[in-house]
Amino acid sequence: MVTSRIAGRVLALTFPRAAILALAALAGTATAQPADYPSRPVRLVVGFPPGGGGDVVARLLAEHMSRTLRQQVIVDNRPGAGTTLGPAAVASAAPDGYTLLLAPDSIFGADKAMWTPNVRYDETSFTPISRVARTFFVMAANKDYGVGTLAELVAKAKADKGEVFVGSTQGLYPALILHEFNRQSEIRLSQVPYTGGSRAVVATVSGEVPLTFAVPSSVMPMVKSGRLRALAITADRRSPLTPDVPTLSELGMKNFNVGYWFALAGPAALPDHVARKLFDASARALADPDVQAKLLASGYEPAPSRSIEEFRSESAQEGAALRRTVDALGIKAN
Q1: Is the dihedral of CA 89, 90, 92, 93 positive or negative?
Q2: Going by DSSP bridges, is the β-strand pair 301-302/126-136 parallel, antiparallel, or unpaired?
Q3: So what's the pLDDT on residue 80?
Q4: How many CA atoms lie within 13 A of 223 on its CB side?
Q5: Sheet harboring 73-77: ordered strands across?
Q6: Res. 20 pLDDT band, cuts 50 70 90
Q7: What CATH number has the domain spanning 138-233?
Q8: What's the start-to-end Cα distance of the chain, in Å?
Q9: Most buried by CB count within 10 Å: which residue of 35, 117, 220, 285?
Q10: Is the pLDDT of residue 308 over 50?
Q11: Spatial CA neighbour of 272 closest among 162, 127, 76
């Protein structure tokens, strides 16, 4: 108390009353500054090239969030190193809300397990904000391969008495699909890796390989045109993206569920008021019927979190489970 009185006396002697009032007003403005976020454009980093993978999701989200936040949200494509360059850039960015990330769920632990020692970030490197959208894989066959169902594929493989080759992109999720399929099936699938899911689909259409596992956006146009036949999906339930295609679980593969979701995240230690403002903006975007329709048309199901707290818990639990699976299976990036 003595110190404050002395300080008050010094101020009174040094500054006129108007200056003291101005300082008080400035202090009030500084306290209110968090409400001004964002005061400049925001970067949304995505580890895919333009038009590929999560880029479509990022651009739909960024366009709507720009209107809500009244600042431009700019998509910054950082492809490469198995989509890990983007997360690495955000993990090392300042936690001020001006550098955000849209990335698959593998950032919450599985990337570290797969890419060690090249990847230094892990689940503690990010502030989870919200889940955004999810997708899965479609198992499809070349139209001339002679199969239209999983049962027909099994029968043909047994008759041919050999391995069945399946084209897919490299990475975590195809590895999980093949492991689980081969564990539960009477036949064995062998992967022919391609540098992208679209290339694997093209190879299947041309007959270079008889089968593929790829995301709906790559496969279903070919199914609708009659060039591929959809046999099953890897999700745990039927999807509005492929309503007439059964799940592998329906066809007898118990608890088969391999897919992934995209997360909106920031660097670790992102201020809570910033994270909540971003959560609210993303929730508004994902509640917009136009955004929902465009996501579905692009092969993704809208999957917003109900709260930040819910998503923080889910990302921690599901990230840890996925990392344990990667470690148990010994999956490593090539």
Answers
A1: positive
A2: antiparallel
A3: 84
A4: 24
A5: 73-77, 42-46, 99-104, 259-267, 126-136, 301-302
A6: very low
A7: 3.40.190.10
A8: 66
A9: 285
A10: yes
A11: 127
Q: What is the pLDDT of residue 27?
A: 38
Backbone phi, psi, residue 226, to 5°: 90, 5
Tokens of residue 136, six digits: 């899965």
In the block, residue with structure tokens 């090249």? 118
Confidence of residue 44 (pLDDT cuts 50, 70, 90): very high
| Cα gap 195→215, rounded to integer Å | 14
The two tokens of residue 282 are 């993303």
CA distance 145 to 249: 23
Query: What is the per-residue burial (b if ≥16 Cβ within 10 Å, else e) of 191-218?
Result: bbebebbbbbbbbbbeeebbbbbbbbbb
What is the per-residue DSSP string for 131-169?
A: EEEEEE-EEEEETTSS-SSHHHHHHHHHHHTS-EEEEEE
Which bin fits 97, alpha (ψ -120 to 50), beta or left (φ > 0)?
left
* Domain 40-135+260-329 CATH assignment equals 3.40.190.150: yes
pLDDT on residue 8: 37
Domain boundaries, the chain: 40-135+260-329, 138-233
Cis before 210 (ω within 30): no
Tell me what pLDDT residue 22 has: 39
List, for residues 120-133, the tens digit of each pLDDT value: 999 999 999 999 99
Judge if 40-135+260-329 and 138-233 fold alike in CATH terms: yes
CB within 8 A of 169, min separation 6: which ones?
A: 193, 194, 195, 196, 197, 199, 200, 214
The pTM assigned to this predicted structure is 0.82
